Amino acid sequence: MRLVATGLLLFMAALFVIARAAEPSFAWAGYLRAFAEAGMVGGMADWFAVTALFKHPLGLPIPHTAIVPRNKDRIGDTLATFLRDNFLVPRVIAQRARRLDIADALARWLTDPPEGAGGRFRQGASKLVATMLEALDPRELGGMLKSAVGKRLHETEVAPILAQLLAAAMADGRHKPLLDAAIRWAANAVGENEHLIRQLVNERGGSILRWTGLDREVSNRLIGALDKLLAEMAANPEHPLRLRAEQGLETFATDLRDNAPLRARVERVKNELIANPAMQRWLDGLWEQARALLLGIARDPERAMAGRLGETLRQIGETLRRDRRLALRINRFTRRALVGIAADYGDGIVRLVSETVRGWDAGTITRRLENQVGRDLQYIRVNGTLVGGLVGLGIHAIDVLM
């Protein structure tokens, strides 16, 4: 566009020379000369205005030129202030976020992804992710992630979390299947270990029981009593022993929350588990599996979306469409997250923009702004040349007619 605008200006200059030479012989040449002359003036004036934004025209230090390089710090501050006052205000973000239905957009994307299963992800982001994952040292990255996870686990006190989970499970009755499973396991254990029970009674019963054969009777009665007790516990949800077990779980949940020595023991067990070599190997394997999965998705998103992952994502999308309560919770969480980001990091983002622009040298900011708006600025030169020429033509016509 710079070449077009400059070429049009040179064309006007050539046209002026031709018209000026032809004016004594042809009356119409005066109109052409006036058009070309005014076009040159308009083109030169707009060239000066456009050039003065970014540099000194012809390198001359004319006042009020090279506006962008001289005011780049003020431009950065103004841009940062504009972002802060119009985008990073929690109240403004909350108002705009109320009009967003993130859950619906996510549901539509998951159930009917644009441009096929891979879509734009395959075109750009997938290649970027694959390149980054392949370029980074897997051991170093895995070690960093493992260290971060380990640090987070060490810092997190698990006893109160376990207490909340156990209390919530008991409030909803989700602990009952676990009790049923424990009772069934105990019943199976008794049946599979009858010989051990008989051997224990035989060894502990003494010589009189063995001589009279009563050890077998005691063993049978003991096994029968255990079987009957477990069967009654399995059949009766209100069995006294089941109720005692539930009371024990409630007490355990309370102790996990309020008993300092128990919480300390839980923390020690947690730290021992984290430091266990088996746990470290498990974390390494978990990272390798996650990295392989990410690479697989990034290299061939179409195939990944067509498999179990794609089916799972589509099911999630259908759930979001049907369950409006879940969608409302997601939208509420998104709004709160955006408002929280603005409140916590808004000033940091503003400083980042301002300091980044301040850190650019004059040549950098000039090139970047010129690349963004330069094409439109060259259109201004073109329009100035043509409009100036038409104005000159009109003035000349009025002068001749009068």
Task: Offer a concise description of the structure.
With 402 residues, the chain is mainly α.
What do you see in this structure?
The structure is a single chain. With 402 residues, the protein is mostly helical. The protein has helices at residues 2-22, 28-54, 67-70, 72-86, 90-97, 102-111, 119-135, 138-155, 158-171, 176-192, 194-204, 207-212, 214-235, 240-258, 260-275, 277-299, 301-306, 308-322, 324-359, 362-401. Helix 1 runs parallel beside helix 20, helix 4 (72-86) packs antiparallel against helix 19 and helix 6 packs antiparallel against helix 18. The protein is rod-shaped. The two termini are 39 Å apart.
Record keyword descriptors for this entry.
rod-shaped, 86% helix, 0% strand, mainly alpha, 402 residues
pLDDT below 50 for ≥5 consecutive residues: which ranges?
none
Mean pLDDT: 78
User: What's the order of the H and E elements?
Assistant: HHHHHHHHHHHHHHHHHHHH
Structural class: mainly alpha
Gyration radius from CA atoms, angstroms: 40 Å
Helix content: over 70%
- Number of DSSP-assigned strands: 0
Please tell me what the overall shape is.
rod-shaped
Counting H and I runs of at least 4 residues, what is the number of helices?
20
Q: Largest sheet at a glance?
A: none
SSE order and pairing:
Blueprint: H1 2-22, H2 28-54, H3 67-70, H4 72-86, H5 90-97, H6 102-111, H7 119-135, H8 138-155, H9 158-171, H10 176-192, H11 194-204, H12 207-212, H13 214-235, H14 240-258, H15 260-275, H16 277-299, H17 301-306, H18 308-322, H19 324-359, H20 362-401
